[in-house]
Design a protein that fits this description.
By secondary structure, the chain is mainly beta. It is built from three helices and 33 strands.
Length: 550
């Protein structure tokens, strides 16, 4: 049975760094700080652009390229980490946000334009993206590396002075993929790789929100987080009518190297198969597999005043876990006063993801950010992942430009220096609901003071009123007289006034109760609705921290 384990709480470590999303920029901005070696170059810097031995992809050897990249990663892991050689002028390294967004890739220069359903556009180096990546155009004819050209870009407005400043061997900051996702007449951007090992993907009608990563190392640890980087990519040109895209990547960092294969199928939904082959240079304290990064500033469960005309601001509003025992567990996200790290233990989970369940514009009222259109991302493990935990990191933030939510799988068995490990999984971009999830789901979580209006001797503000609404499944077909019950478990505190009632829309059922915490102890709760012995809903999981109202 999956259980809740609070692993650590506290203030944000001084060396802890996190993703920064710059509002209005279509690509992701990442602070890729890790060790000092990652932040500087020296005479010992190494270029990873050397060609692989026979990189051609033959029909009779479909894994030849992946195996060659794996051999490169294994070889790198046997030597000390060396930062990639950079060749970026100060004018580009120190450009402003407005300058960077004024450099436009010319669509007519897109790779594979007119030759495939897919097109590739490139990102200019500079601003936050100072470590170049190497792009290989792998094909049956060979493996030439793509060279930087000024002609790929238009420098307009504030960026005009930067034209001609980039040397020919500077490399690229990343790339984005276009495909006729919503209409046959236009190729939408649906996938982007830029910054460390970050990437984003969307389905029809969605806009960029949360991000995925290739790997997370020591997230939320006091020693500081290490950000592995995709140093090289191999792009395989699809056939003219082919509807899937295959690409490979080489990952490198002070602690680990890796070979990655991505097979992307855009559509409804957009899915990506990921295979990672990892090699450890050093002992890794915490290995985060299939990490997802998002933002939660405030929402329906926020208990402190937020000076904002928008009722809610978030890219994701909850963590969903499909446990091996068949349970579906929903944990609403929060923006706490201090760093919070919690986990859900399991063995071979069926899936986990960060969701944007609330798709109602009236709950956001934001005409620019389109929060109601942000995607949810679902991770489906393939093969035996063994014992471990889904870990959730919630970082305090006072701004929506900070990605402050991270979720990933941590294997119980640590990865030691000299060891290797393989992980395979599928990523799915969807809206608010997974087709395979049955039963009713949490619609919203509301929390307030547990006092009765007009009460002459009200309780302290630490006493809280909870109202959790469920909708879907068989709940919508039940009459108000059905004897439904809420089963609620907790680790501390006192629960009173536990009730289940149907709301006036005749489809939604509410579980309400009052909680009295024990001093400054946190309260870890899980609850679901049942009809006699039949469970009708997913599990609502919530951790109440006393400082949430201070």
């Amino acid at each position: 049975m999956m259980c809740n384990v609070i692993t650590r709480t506290g203030k944000l470590p001084n060396r802890f760094t996190y993703t920064v999303w710059l509002l209005g920029l279509l690509c992701l901005g990442v602070i890729t700080q890790g060790t000092q070696a990652q932040q500087s170059t020296s005479a010992s810097s190494v270029s990873l652009a050397a060609p692989l031995a026979d990189p051609r992809v033959a029909d009779e050897e479909p894994n030849a390229l992946f195996n060659a990249i794996e051999a490169r990663a294994k070889s790198l892991a046997q030597n000390d980490f060396k930062p990639v050689e950079t060749n970026i002028p100060d004018e580009l390294a120190n450009m402003t946000y407005d300058q960077y967004r004024s450099i436009h890739f010319r669509p007519e220069a897109s790779l594979w334009r007119g030759e495939s359903l897919f097109e590739i556009q490139l990102f200019h180096p500079g601003f936050l993206y100072r470590e170049p990546v190497v792009l290989h155009m792998a094909s049956s004819e060979g493996d030439p590396s793509l060279k930087f050209k000024q002609d790929f870009f238009n420098y307009v407005g504030q960026a005009e002075a930067l034209a001609g400043k980039a040397p020919e061997n500077i490399g690229f900051a990343g790339f984005r993929v276009h495909y006729p996702l919503n209409t046959n007449e236009y190729k939408d951007e649906f996938l982007v790789f830029q910054g460390a090992s970050y990437f984003r993907l969307v389905g029809p009608g969605q806009v960029y929100g949360l991000s995925a990563r290739g790997l997370a190392i020591d997230t939320a640890e006091s020693s500081g987080e290490e950000f592995p980087v995709f140093r090289e990519f191999w792009l395989l040109k699809p056939e003219p009518t082919q509807t899937r895209l295959v690409l490979y990547a080489l990952l490198d960092s002070p602690s680990v190297t890796g070979a990655y294969r991505f097979e992307v199928t855009p559509g409804a939904p957009t899915e990506m198969a990921v295979e990672a082959r990892l090699f450890a240079r050093k002992d890794i304290k915490k290995l985060g597999i299939a990490p997802l990064t998002s933002m939660f500033h405030h929402g329906e469960n926020t208990t402190r005043f937020v000076d904002d005309f928008r009722p809610e601001v978030h890219d994701s509003d909850g963590l969903l876990v499909a446990a091996a025992n068949g349970e579906w567990i929903w944990r609403p996200l929060s923006n706490h006063r201090a760093l919070r790290v919690s986990s859900l233990s399991d063995e071979n989970p069926r899936g986990f993801g960060l969701l944007q369940r609330d798709r109602d514009f009236n709950h956001y009222l934001d005409m620019e950010a389109d929060y109601e259109l942000r995607p949810s991302l679902w991770v489906m493990p393939l093969g035996d992942w063994g014992k471990g935990r889904v870990e959730l990191v919630e970082i305090p933030t006072d701004s929506e430009v900070n990605d402050n939510i991270v979720a990933y799988w941590v294997p119980e068995k640590a990865l030691k220096a000299g060891e290797s490990r393989q992980f395979s999984y599928r990523l799915r971009s969807f809206d608010q609901h997974l087709a395979e999830q049955g039963g009713a789901r949490v619609l919203r979580t509301r929390i307030g003071w547990g006092a009765v209006p007009g009460q002459s001797n009200p309780p302290p503000h630490s006493k809280r009123q909870f109202a959790i609404d469920f909708r879907g499944g068989e709940l919508e077909n039940l009459s108000a007289d059905v004897p439904l019950e809420a089963e609620l478990q907790k680790n501390s505190g006192t629960i009173t006034d536990l009730m289940v009632m149907r709301l006036p829309d005749q489809k939604t059922w509410r579980v309400s109760f009052k909680l009295e915490p024990e001093g400054n102890n946190l309260v870890d709760m899980r609850m679901f609705i049942k009809l006699r012995d039949q469970r009708l809903t997913e599990v609502w999981s919530y951790v109440w921290y006393p400082d949430a109202i201070q």
